[in-house]
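Please study the protein below:
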Amino acid sequence: MKFDESYSGKVFIMSRSSEEEADAVIYGMPMDWTVSFRPGSRFGPNRIREASIGLEEYSPYLDRHLEEVQYHDAGDLLLPFGNAKRSIDIIEEYMDELLEKGKFPLGLGGEHLVTWPVLKAFHRKYSDLAVIHIDAHADLREEYEGEVLSHSTPIRKACEQFGAENIYSFGIRSGMREEFQYAEESGMYMAKYEVLEPLKEILPTLSGRPVYVTIDIDVLDPAYAPGTGTAEAGGISSKELLSAIHAIAASDVNVVGADLVEVAPAYDSSEKTQIAASKFIREMLLGFVK
């Protein structure tokens, strides 16, 4: 698998030197080929890595230190610019490799379409996979302006191929009327506007199941994360998203992989979006990788 060599040397804080010794692998999916508003999320993975240098290695929330988790930052996958189909094929092939090696994948996006090939690979390994989706947007469209490969479609694809009853969405506050109707009729779970309290209610029902967690940074209110392609007013705070990550970590679900997507650093000169994202990644590493 080819990685972008221009990102060599820029790794998430305390990354181990080799994949072989790692339990978890951080990898970047620098793709924003199908965005419908503002591009730039392809630069998100690298800026999250750079922001991580300012983090403490210790989490007071979890009483764990990054030295307690063996993880390797593999860098960014080399994706062909503008070619969505080939890009998602590359991501899926790489995910198959990681899962064959028994690694915990932690992806950095990139637009949200990059989650779709990852979910396909995971579902081949875990037939009873459940998906926790934390986002401002429903992502339940069948297509966007005629394109079935779109950042607005990955959760609809997951519902249709894995069973809508296995998909759990939180924080949703934007979408077409038809998307909300589909959510009601399909059997999927959707918590509108809120994340933490409905998540706490659902987690016991997923006890023991393999769960993939995908977080779109735009679930945060733009006051906390302006650096994203499709910001949506009325979101949650950074504190609430941290609490949601910690609730998942403290539960009995078996988190088998995760990603954080849609950081677009060009729209946040203050860097608070990427700083927050790097902290979420730290907490996901310490909370999800047992």
Observations:
- Residues 33 and 82 are 5 Å apart (CA to CA).
- The chain has a mean pLDDT of 96.
- Helices lie at 44-52, 84-100, 115-125, 154-162, 177-186, 196-202, 238-250, 272-288.
